[in-house]
Amino acid sequence: LIAAVSGFTVKAAIDLAKVSAIAQAQEGAFRNLAAQAGQSGDEIIAAMEKMSQGTISHTRAVSIAARAMTSGLDLDTQKISDMMALAKDRASAFGIDTADAFSIITTAISYQSPRMLRQIGITFSAAKAYEDFAQKIGKSTEELTEEERQLAFLGAVLAKAGSGMGNLAGE
Predict the structure, then answer these.
(1) What pTM value is reported for the model?
(2) Model confidence over 81-120: pLDDT tens digits?
(3) What are the C-alpha distances in Å from 52 to residues 29, 95, 121, 124, 171?
(4) Rounded to 5 degrees, what are φ and ψ at 157?
(5) How far apart are CA 2 and CA 97, in angstroms?
(6) Are 41 and 35 in contact (CB under 8 A)?
(7) Euclidean distance between CA atoms 143 and 29, whole angstroms
């Protein structure tokens, strides 16, 4: 019996070490990814953890931040922090996990899908967002590049967050 328990303890310790090594490798890869984008991975994770108010683990923050940074969006620490605050608010309002809400927001922005955002109570006109952004930069809507369309969409989502997170539906 002692040998069985001892064997189980050794196996559990080895499994834990493997999980820890994977998490450390993932965090190192994220830091490199953030550095390539001119950002501090540590600052991004710290901002996400702060804005989530402890509703996501450090490891989960690294994972979803990496996904956000590889989604094709031009994200900095402030934008990611604002997106996390919005995710925390929407998760709370809809009874879902903060990390899941963040993933919905990130994916919706990446694909410019207002429909995805509706499931967490964020509604707006993408066409109006594109039109307003185009006018702001002196272009027609048709002249907007894909990156500019994403920026317009991201701006509209973050504007909704700034307009009072308790009442995001409408417009």
Answers:
(1) 0.75
(2) 899 999 999 999 999 999 999 999 999 998 999 999 999 9
(3) 22, 14, 18, 24, 27
(4) -65, -45
(5) 41
(6) yes
(7) 36
Torsion of CA 131, 75, 72, 160, to 10 degrees: -40
What 3-state class would DSSP assign to 123? coil
Which residues does 155 contact at the CB level (< 8 Å), separation at least 6?
129, 133
Element (H, E) at 61: helix 58-69
The residue behind tokens 């995805």 is: 116
Q: Can you read off the two tokens belonging to residue 117? A: 């955002």
**pLDDT one-digit tens code per residue, 117-150:** 999 999 999 999 999 999 999 999 999 999 899 9
C-alpha torsion 59→109→161→126, nearest 10? -170
